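Box S1 | Example of a co-folding query
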Amino acid sequence: MSSYRSQFTREANFGLARRLMVVLSSVILLGAIAVLSISVFVQKQMIEDRLNMNAIHLASLIKEVSIPAILRNDPASLDVFFEELESRSDIVSVSIVDPEGWLWKSGGAEAAAWLAPVDDPFLREAIVAQEPRQTLGENYLHRAGPIAVAGDVIGFLNLRVARAPIEQELRGLWVSTAAISIACVIVGPLIAWVIARRLSEPLLRLQEASRRVASGDFSHRIESHSNDEFGLVAQSFNNMLDELHSSFLETKRVAYEDKLTGVPNRSWLSLQIENLTKRTDPEDQFAALFLDVDRFKEVNDTHGHHVGDMLLRAFTERLRNQMQELGLKPTGVRVHKKQGLLFEQGEALLSRLGGDEFTILVDGGKSQDLARSIVAAMEKPFALDGLNLKVSTSIGIALFPDHATSREHLLKCADVAMYQAKNDVRGTFAVYDRDKHKELLARSQMEKDIDRAVANDEFELFLQPKFDVASEELVGVEALIRWNHPERGFVRPDDFLPVTAAMGLMPRVGQIMVGKAIRVAAEINQGRGKPITMAVNIASEELLAPGFADRLKSQLEDNSLDPRLLEVEITEGTAMEQNDLVEHNIDLLRELGVKLAVDDFGVGYSNLGRLKTLAFDTLKIDRGLIMDVATDDAARGLFQTVVDMAKVLHADVVSEGVETPEQLAFLQERGVQTYQGYYGGRPMPLGEFKQLVVESDSQNRPAEVLKLVS
Ligand code: C2E
Ligand code: CA
Ligand code: CA
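Box S1 (continued) | Returned holo structure for calcium ion
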């Protein structure tokens, strides 16, 4: 309480107290001035009154004593009396004149000056008027008046009463009044300040209490034991605080708790991470586990939200149990301020971010053990609503401060790690890996780029010629896709087709390429004697896409291309898929009349029986098989075996990847029909290819020209 008191004394500016002080001081000052001026005025009055009274009193005394002497005309009998009068300090002069104004008896300090009436005009006035006259001079009060006995004026009394003695007497009174007033002026503001402070202090305490409450400190109470107005206000204020506090706690709980599962929600988690990331001790490493329920959407869609909700509650319960089994105490929403930070007694914070996403903040050293045990625990099915639901979880772990130092970044890293865990076949939890994250980012950038490329038609057709091995004549061409990337230039298919396929865009992109290839084939074969076949690569996703054969058919018809001039290349892997749909679609193609080729033959494990069933027209021997034939006997033997196999299957052979004259010579020896490779020509844009066609038509040995082109 004492510290609180000193604090508010420091902080309050006492505006009210100061105003009160000014008012009170002014009142005191004005009061003092008023008292002073009144006392001056009153004093003047008092002097006059006293002088008056003195004069009247003296006059009547003198008259009383003098009358017998005047009647006897015996001034000498008054000598003693007048001597006495003269000795008095309050009498300036006293004299008695006869009715005509001649001096009869005189006394007082200045009496000698008054010998004749003519010398005193004031006395003469009284004589003429036969009435008393009185005037107040600067130093004395002058009174002249008749002395009468039974109505007869027997003389006049001329008396001057001194002012000084009375003034002297009253000065003491005046000095004390002034002193009191001055004291009031000096001490008044001090007293005013004390009074003002006493009056305003309760208000300041109230104000201070309000300030604390406003800053979130609901524990503060105003101390007051008095029963006065302030005591009542303090009591009401404290009651109000009690109510406010409990409703605040309730609001906080509602705001930070997830309704469905009862664990803290995303907002609470954010606050806690924010607090944790502020700690700077290197020992304070902690981990964020990001997890979700695999295939939760399926459960929701199949069994309804009611079961989904039940699953989330049961899932939460299992998470809690796993934490407790590892000696970790799951903390709830802490409604009271300044409660200890997490992990103090092996605590961990489980929260639900929303949907099926959860987060656990835990000591860094325990994160992997916890993740492992959660993954294992979720393998057991959930018995809910008569169902036996089998779900699993994927967990991503990110460490503070190793992987991220800010709240958003830490959660992002944990999320990315979870994504990695989902892609990783080996486990269902993964610790954040910066390199993998970079790959992921590059991939998502590529996905965006591919979307744009599809929309902008950035894919182009490159064409690689195929030649007859014996005559080296141009006999066919293979259409190969190139991505004309606005920044990277021409991108090879191996760099983007896997992503395109994963995005499910392969059928769409393939359709565009096949369309372009058919148009080109129709164009170059227009009016030709010896046809040039067009080979197109078809991925299994394209082949299996509904309506593939129908679309191909209409594309052929639209361009009036003889189907026999189109060769569909299917990889050995696709061809070997033991899939009825593959077989069915290959049959449809055969019905169309297009040629069928097995691409990259010789590297997979082909089933001869199946190859026979599918009845391919061409086997394209993979580049890997021709590579070493010049130097390696075993390679030559292998190559020969594949050629023999093709013969058995009645298929033509195209040897891919021919790069040297030696390889070509080897093919000529073995009676292979067709070759393709850099020796004959690299994949090229359409313009170049058209030129090549023209040149090869006009020359006897086109292969020589082609070599220049490549
Ligand atoms: P692929 O069908 O085996 O095509 C032959 C690949 O070998 C081409 O690579 C070609 O440039 C390359 N090549 C040709 N001759 C030589 C040579 O003498 N030496 C060497 N080292 N390489 C040679 P490219 O164009 O990068 O295509 C790669 C693969 O992408 C293709 O392999 C094919 O499977 C796929 N692809 C290309 N275009 C398309 C398309 O339009 N649709 C589909 N579905 N796949 C395509
Ligand atoms: Ca091919
Ligand atoms: Ca190939």
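Residues 15-72 form the longest helix (58 residues). Confidence is low (pLDDT under 50) at residues 1-10, 700-710.
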